[in-house]
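User: Predict histidine kinase's structure from this.
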Amino acid sequence: MPTLSDLAVSHTALDEAGLEWMHSLVSDWQLLADLSFADLILWVPLQDDSGWIAVAQMRPTTGPTVYHDDVVGTVVAKGQRSLIDTAWAERRICREGDPDWSSGVPVREETIPVRRSDVTASRRGEHIPGRYLGVIQRSTNLSAARTPSRLELTYLQSASDLAQMVAEGRFPFSGEAPSMVRSPRVGDGLLRLDRAGRVTYASPNALSAYRRLGRGADLVGAELGKVTAMLCYSDEPINEDLMLVASGRAARETEVESRSTVVQLRAIPLIVGGGRIGALVLIRDVTELRRRERELMTKDATIREIHHRVKNNLQTVAALLRLQARRLRIPEGREALEEAVRRVGSIAIVHETLSHAPEEFVDFDDIADRVIAMSGEVSVPEAQVAPARVGSFGVLPGTVATPLAMALTELLQNAVQHGQPQRLDVIVSRGPERLSISVSDDGKGLPPDFDLDSSTSLGLQIVRTLVVGELSGRLSLAPREGGGTEVTLVIPLPATL
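Assistant:
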């Protein structure tokens, strides 16, 4: 399905500011759909003004839908949808008198002109209406209609106020997109406030949330700001956002914590005809969500501490091996221990990086650069080889980083010690599904009868085990054009990256 941006760019005359306003509207119009118990379709004039194209659609979570199929991308000519044409031409909300039965169920149709405001002026607290951008078609399925309750009447009145704000260019709020990962929705809990910030209606879920915070009495008639401030009373200064949100004076979000309960609040000031008539406050109990987040933070901290201790232990082992190597008089034994020190050191580098990472993912470029620098120290002074990296590894999970660091250490160490090159490059190419790494040098090259499968080199055996066995990748060695050796690793990337 094409996106709003795709349709707007290819079929309409919306400019960048208009498209941004439409994105803001669509990101938050679930609120209007739920309060209206209705489907919403956003129509924008075609570039040649010959008709309309549906660029976005929203179904309600509070009632039955009218459109079971997607209508995004549908084009209608001028004159086919009279309510849309009228709302656009007369710049007003239009309502049809009788239900439409053409789809087999009674549907009430309304259209709301969409107007944007001057964003710069809105950020200064001023409202300067801008141009009209399109029309929202609001379709309500009346097949399940019944005598409305107080909740439904409050929802519908709030939807009417919000629709008027859309027509006046006052909704969505400029620069005030929902800031939290999961903002409260209508069904989570809703409070309606008057101009003074007093509660005129509280949904059952909203009442339950405040009872868990410690409010025993009814909320209707109470000043929500004062009630909320008393519930979260402490020696610390009251959060300014809390009072602004709880009184409905600003389009913001905040959280209230009391008696081990955490409640998320979102305020939507209702401004119609240039005056503030009240506000909606959406409420969601996020106690369990915050508890799980704290558990995850504790778990992450524990994992980072484990990585830190593993790194310390590995560095201790490397130091002991280094001391032992200095005491050995047999060159072969000393060389073997020094190789072990470098292998342990490469693993320690990964664990050190993971100990600072908020998740089990690391920027492997930093690890690779440290491993490359460490391999350069192995070369004899007269060789003066300075390994270099070309390309970026990017972010990798710890399960890939550890074996890859060890494999890279072995390849660089082998190239420096046995190839005696003047140039050594690590060339990286990352695609969406795989990571390709080439380690090339201009050294002695491979023996004429070299065979990877029958090679007795411990370093290559380690690399093969790591790349093929642990990383499910491919390993190949070939003569480099112009002399030397080129080793290629191809490693599949996890689907989560």
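Residues 288-359 form one domain.
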